[in-house]
Amino acid sequence: MSQCWVFGGGTQLTVLGQPTSAPSVTLFPPSSEELDAKKATLVCLISDFY
């Protein structure tokens, strides 16, 4: 059994009837060029969570 919801302009969340597993989380830091310019962009990648 799965459940599905759609939010806003089309973001879809599907909940599966399977056991969950802990995600693998990777954080990519800002580049040195961004830090020199007093800006920062962080990217968070989450994978293997179901």
From TrEMBL:
Sequence ranges assigned to domain Immunoglobulin C1-set in this UniProt record: 25-50
State one Pfam family annotation. C1-set
Question: Origin, by domain of life?
Answer: Eukaryota
**What's the name of the protein?**
Immunoglobulin C1-set domain-containing protein
Annotated organism of origin: Gulo gulo (Wolverine)
